[in-house]
Design a protein that fits this description.
Layout (H helix, E strand, L loop, with lengths): L1 E4 L14 H9 L3 E5 L10 H6 L3 E3 L2 H7 L2 E3 L6 H6 L5 E4 L7 H9 L3 E4 L14 H20 L7 E3 L2 E3 L3 E5 L3 H12 L3 E5 L6 H6 L3 E2 L20 H16 L3 E4 L14 H5 L6 E4 L16 E4 L2 E4 L9 H18 L1 E2 L4 E2 L6 H6 E4 L2 E2 L2 H7 L7
Parallel strand pairs: 1-2, 1-4, 2-3, 4-5, 5-6, 9-10, 9-12, 10-11, 12-13, 13-15
Antiparallel strand pairs: 6-18, 7-8, 14-15, 16-17, 18-19
Helix pairs in contact: 1-11, 6-7, 6-11
């Protein structure tokens, strides 16, 4: 079975889907791995490292797609790349399937089995395959480092001959994987940290990291079966904003991480809240790519509002691309390995398995994922 790994062509993407260590493991398992020449150049990994691991190097990108039984990458493909894939090919990457109807239709038309890595169920057996969590972990870390760089204060308390410097105040909104890492990183740097989440169940986790949990009575909230926060009503959102405005005004750094899977991120920090913050404060919007939590945040940009620096930089895991690639590659290898037949030497789509039921979007010329079929109103002929 031919596993192909093309270079990423999305602007600014420097991560690599598969590193030589995991290529070697796949080759040992019986896979034929082909990589596009220059795949690892953004990480200073030469083609020779991949050949040493047992991969073949292909210079012709179109040929790479045409010969592939399985395509592995980070970003979703371009239309012309789908056109070069052969029918029956398996395509695996992040796909954003709730917002890519045209791409999903192309997969259906070409009879390609498309697998969306962000749709892998959050169950214990699938933790080692969870690319969203691994990349969010790094994003939370980078968000704090970026804020510390932009802030014109130090984060820790410091006792000096000139007097005592108070610790900076950091407020984390959204305590998922990214939020928890942001809390831990800010605490390690010595900041005074507060955090809020609509799910009261995370209060214990916040306290275990040494931060204060901000309690806001929103009435009935909770989380989905996959552990994501449920969407709030407009009344609940307003109540949340009113209570958070006071905390934001007293904070030197605010980091927002609130995202709703498959939907636009909720607006949490309003223009009025920003206006009440001290000039020189910093806000990092980790949800900027899915609509943004912060009024005025712009993907890929840093802006100033009333003296407050709003960071809307995208692909934060890509700023620590070596470790981001190691983690993504490990997740991808674990996924392939889970469904690899050592007898047939191939990746097997077993539709009785709950992981594959959750993440396979198209197969056999149909949308087979119940969630995506329901989202688009398509007939769902699940396997």
């Amino acid at each position: 079975m031919n596993l192909a790994v093309p270079k990423e062509v999305y602007p600014g993407e420097v991560r690599v889907a598969l590193i030589p260590d995991h290529v070697a493991k796949l080759v040992k398992a019986g896979a034929d791995v082909a990589i596009e020449s220059g795949l690892g150049q953004t990480l200073r990994i030469g083609d020779e490292k991949y050949t040493e691991a047992g991969a073949s190097v292909v210079a012709d990108r179109n040929q790479l797609f045409q010969n592939a039984d399985v395509v592995l990458r980070i970003r979703k493909p371009l239309a012309e790349e789908v056109a070069h894939m052969k029918p029956g090919c398996i395509y695996i990457s992040l796909l954003d399937p709730f917002n890519e109807r045209e791409l999903i239709d192309m997969f259906v038309t070409k009879n390609i089995s498309a697998i969306s890595m962000e749709m892998i169920p959050r169950i214990t057996r699938a933790q080692k395959m969870d690319v969203l969590s691994s990349q969010a972990n790094l994003a939370g870390y980078v968000a704090v480092i970026l804020a510390a760089e932009r802030l014109d204060k130090i984060l820790p308390m410091m006792m000096t001959p000139a007097g005592t410097i108070s610790p900076a105040r950091v407020f984390i909104i959204g305590v998922g994987v990214a939020g928890l890492q942001a809390i831990a990183t800010a605490k390690r740097l010595g900041a005074r940290v507060e955090a809020f989440d609509t799910r009261p169940v995370v209060e214990e986790q916040v306290k275990s990291l040494g931060a204060r949990f901000v309690k806001i009575d929103l009435g009935e909230t909770g989380q989905t079966k996959d552990g994501y926060a449920k969407a709030l009503t407009e009344e609940q959102l307003q109540r949340q904003r009113d209570a958070m405005a006071k905390v934001c005004a007293a904070s030197d750094v605010v980091i927002t991480t609130a995202q709703l899977f498959g939907r636009k991120a909720p607006l949490i920090v309003t223009a009025d809240m920003i206006a009440a913050m001290q000039p020189g404060s910093v806000i990092v919007d980790l949800a900027v790519e899915s609509g943004g939590n912060v009024a005025g945040s712009s993907p890929g940009k840093e802006t100033l509002q009333n003296g407050v620096c709003i960071i809307g930089l995208t692909n934060l895991p890509g700023r620590v691309a070596v470790h981001a690639s190691q983690m993504f590659s490990a997740n991808l290898f674990s996924f392939i390995d889970e469904f690899w037949s050592s007898i047939e030497k191939r990746f097997v789509l077993n539709f009785e398995d709950e992981i594959l039921k959750g993440c396979v979007i198209t197969h056999g010329g149909e949308i087979v994922n119940a969630q995506i079929a329901g989202h688009y109103g398509a007939a769902n002929n699940s396997q």
